[in-house]
Amino acid sequence: MTEQEKIQYFNKINRQFHLIGKAMTIIAIAAMISFSVFAAILYNVWPSLKGFLAGFANVAVIYYPVAIAEFLIFAPMLGTGGSYLAFLTGNLTNLKIPCAMNARDIAKVEAGTPENEIISTLSISASAITTMLIIFAGVLLLSPLRHILAEPVLAPAFDNVVAALFGALGLKYFIKQPKIAIVPLVLLTLLCILVPSMISQTSILIIPAGLIALGIGYVLFKKEKIKG
Predict the structure, then answer these.
(1) Cys bridge to 115: 6, 109, 197, 224, which one at CB 3.0-4.6 A?
(2) What is residue 160's DSSP assignment?
(3) Tens digit of each residue's pLDDT (9 = 90 or more) over 36-69
């Protein structure tokens, strides 16, 4: 198979991903809102327009920017199939993204390539299946320990699981490109120390951190190009 035939075949697969992904997204949205709609119809209890708009505005102010930022950042990393799977099954930052990045490193493929899209799709599929199995097993096996796990002394451990996961995962990327990583890392660390409330806004902080890293990378690229 020639390189052009590979690209044509991959584009055909991507079109199928889009078709299935859009259909499943519509089904998932319909399933999520169906219970509320059916409950409102069954009991004839509908929210007032003012109350609905007020509640929607409070949620949209936080989650719409986060949703846009996550799409712009994660979609190029995951590819077509991986993006649909990840956004449908959820847990992107704490499960799907680390899994896809680790699989990409193990397979030694580059972001933006057909190989990366295949690896990310397979890894996210495996992550979603594994997550469901672990949750099912956890519900059965950890139920007797729920009183112990709910102890206040263990709360800090559960609160820092995502931070520990991304810290360990991010370290190898920081080491690879310390010149790009050090400035946004130091600036955002200082920001979170000085303004502790920003710790819970990590999805929003990704945007300025990414812009700073891109700016530094561009400057370094231009310098290397001039030297070359």
Answers:
(1) 109
(2) T
(3) 888 888 888 888 888 888 888 877 776 777 788 7
Q: Smallest Cα–Cα separation from 73: which of 81, 63, 83? A: 83
Burial 188-224 (b: 16+ CB within 10 A, else e): beebbeeeeeeeeebbebbeebeebbeebeeeeeeee
> What one-letter code names the amino acid at 203?
S
Specify the pLDDT at position 26.
93
* Burial of residue 104, with CB atoms counted within 10 A of its CB: 0-12 exposed, 13-18 middle, 19 or more buried: buried
**21 and 80 Cβ atoms separated by less than 8 Å:** yes
| Chain mean pLDDT for the chain | 81
**Whole-Å CA distances, 58 to 71, 76, 212:** 21, 29, 29
Q: Which structure tokens are listed for 75?
A: 């979609």
Tokens of 71: 């799409």
Buried b vs exposed e over 66-95: b needs ≥16 C-beta within 10 Å?
Answer: eeebbeebbeebbbbbbbbbbbebeebbeb
Sequence-separated (6 or more) residues with CB below 8 Å from residue 184: 208, 209, 210, 212, 213, 216
Residue ranges of alpha helices (H) inside 113-160 are 114-142, 146-149, 155-159
Torsion of CA 24, 27, 31, 34, to 10 degrees: 160
